[in-house]
Amino acid sequence: MPERGADAGYGVDAACLPDDAPAVVRLWGEALGRVEKRQQKLQWFYAHPGRERARLFVLRHTGEIVGATGIGPRSLWWRGSSVDAALMGDFAVASRHRTLYPAMLLQRSTLQQGLQEYALLYGFPNARSLPVVRRVGYQVLPGMARYARMLRSSFYLPSFWPAALRRAGGALLDRLLGLRHALALMLPRRGLHTAWLHEPDARFDALWLRLREQVGDCVIGVRDCALLRWRFPSHTARQPRFFVLSDRQGERLLGYAVCQPNAQASALQILDLLVDAPSPACVARLLRLLAETARAQGYRSLSVQCGGPDWLLAGVRAAGLVPRQSTQREPMILALAPGMPQEMATVGWYLSYADTDE
Question: Which of 101, 105, 272, 334 is 20 to 30 A off residue 311, Cα-Cα?
């Protein structure tokens, strides 16, 4: 049922698609930017086959759409069972209606309706939205931080140095910095095979089934073939690819990292990763091999945005990726339906870009 506001003219209801689509896309473009991608987002997140349970809510003022937000289904795994969750995103209010009441009405209505259908809601709001989501009942938890590793140091040396000095100094620095990782890979490299794929295959399901039984008291989003194909379609502009690590015969997948270059094609970004055992050594092995490959392909740096259990972050750091001091940690918000264990707000969450709505 629509929720009406005490302030005259405001109300929240489910969007009527496709009729409301142009107004929602226009609102998102004005409030969130990147207008050229908003129509694609509407189709991918809310209207894609298999997304029938996704919900798009709109805030109307005297009939005009002045706000929107949505939730989409996301299966989680915790303590040996599946959790029926929803990911929240695309929160936007038109500039002339950005007072506290309209924003809270939209968020509160979405929260109430979402928790009637799902066991929990979570999301990654921007800093401006945090006061609103706190007030309507979301908990704010540690989320993700960005980690990066230089692969070609010459590009980061002072620009006033002569080009020849930067090249020589960078090459020497790369050898020194890479020596530890090269030594660490000498033994683990034996019996291993790496490759690039454009989409996942049946081995990814087997990898997911092996890992999910070992993660213990950690909340992790399902990462089977169906999710990965939807989340990282091969036909998108920058075409994410899967860097895979397997045994020599290629039959058993030991780990993967979903990667795409940045807009300048100078840095390789890791969008998601998974290994077959919850171990820092397994994470570090995968990322060291990826860094070696990325450097050979000409990339200047390797980065990942992630958060989660100690073994994941320890492996990221062991592979030479360090927290970026120039970026703040991206918090996560969480709301649990009545009867859901409150421990879900205190245990570790395995998080990557794959768990966001972008």
Answer: 334
Q: In this predicted structure, what is the pLDDT of residue 250?
A: 79
Among the listed residues 93, 276, 129, 301, the one whose alpha carbon sits nearest the alpha carbon of residue 192 = 276
Integer Cα distance of 343 and 230 in angstroms: 30
Q: Is the Cβ–Cβ distance between 94 and 67 less than 8 Å? A: yes
Q: How many CB atoms lie within 10 A of CB 147?
A: 22
**Nearest-5° angle of CA 92, CA 97, CA 101?**
90
Burial of 342 (C-beta count, 10 Å sphere; 0-12/13-18/19+): exposed
Evaluate if pTM is beyond 0.85.
Answer: yes
101 half-sphere exposure, CB direction, 13 A CA radius: 12
Domains of the chain and any CATH numbers = 3-137 (3.40.630.30), 145-330+341-355 (3.40.630.30)
- Token couple for 105: 């009405």
Please state, in angstroms and rounded to a whole number, the distance separating the CA atoms of residues 188 and 160.
41
3-state secondary structure of 36: helix
Summarised one tens digit per residue, pLDDT across range 210-240 is 999 999 899 999 999 999 999 998 766 668 9
> Sign of the C-alpha dihedral, residues 309, 293, 320, 303?
negative
